[in-house]
Amino acid sequence: MSNEINASSLESLEYIPYIDENGQLPEQLTGKIGVYAIFNQSKLLQFVGYSRDVYLSLKQHLIRQPEQCYWIKTQTIERPSRSALESIESAWIEENGSVPLGNGKNKEKWTQPINVKALMTSEEQLSYQNPNNDELAQMKIIKNVARRVEAEILKFLADRGLQIELRFNPKLKEEGLLDLK
């Protein structure tokens, strides 16, 4: 029994809109195992990844990098095989001719929860660093920063026509992190 996967070239795959005309993400990828490439508005490759649920991964990337997620290309496989997925991912990056920023120096922005401390306004920083603040006061400030950043992301995506509900993990907000539940 062969575990051989026929990898499609990135070039040969169709572009799929990240957010379709009905404001939905590509629901046909729900629960699908596969490799995906994310492109910006100009169809420049930003990130290549693989997942056991491509749809959920696409949702996470959309909130982490909403300005970069406009088009996707994907190849799904039936059975999970990390080596097959890694092999397709590597082939696509090689085919691109250079490592996309999302797989290089900006990988953390694509693969880790958003750290809102880095997005604080100068007023929020001053308030947070106030020596009279105890831990609870700081947690409240960081939670409010997380709420502000979350609202900005949701507004940006609503302006792009997104119609699906995105639920952020409330526990992470206390730590100054934003990620979907």
For this entry, give a set of tags:
181 residues, GIY-YIG endonuclease, 4-stranded antiparallel sheet, two-stranded antiparallel ribbon, 6 strands
Can you describe this structure in just a few lines?
This protein is an alpha+beta fold and 181 residues long.
Which secondary structure elements does this structure contain, and how are they paired or packed?
Elements: E1 16-17, E2 33-39, E3 45-51, H1 54-64, E4 71-77, H2 82-96, H3 107-111, E5 114-115, H4 122-129, H5 135-159, H6 170-173, E6 177-178
Helix pairs in contact: 4-5
Would you write up a description of this structure?
The protein is elongated, with a radius of gyration of 19 Å. It folds into two domains: about 15-105, GIY-YIG endonuclease; about 115-180, no CATH class. The chain has helices at about 55-65, 80-95, 105-110, 120-130, 135-160, 170-175; strands spanning about 15, 35-40, 45-50, 70-75, 115, 175-180. It is built from six helices and six strands, in the order βββαβααβαααβ. With about 180 residues, it is of the alpha+beta class.
Radius of gyration computed on alpha carbons = 19 Å
Question: Which descriptor suits the 3D outline?
Answer: elongated
Which CATH first-tier class of the largest domain would you pick? Answer: Alpha Beta
What structural class do the secondary elements suggest? alpha+beta
N/C terminus separation: 39 Å
CATH architecture of the largest domain: 3-Layer(aba) Sandwich
As residue ranges, the low-confidence spans are none
Strand order of the largest sheet: 1-4-2-3
* Count of folded domains: 2
Helix content: 25-40%
Instruction: Let me know the largest β-sheet.
Output: 4 strands, antiparallel
Query: What name does the CATH topology of the largest domain carry?
Result: GIY-YIG endonuclease
The number of helical elements comes to: 6
Count all strands and give the number.
6
Query: Could you tell me the mean pLDDT?
Result: 94
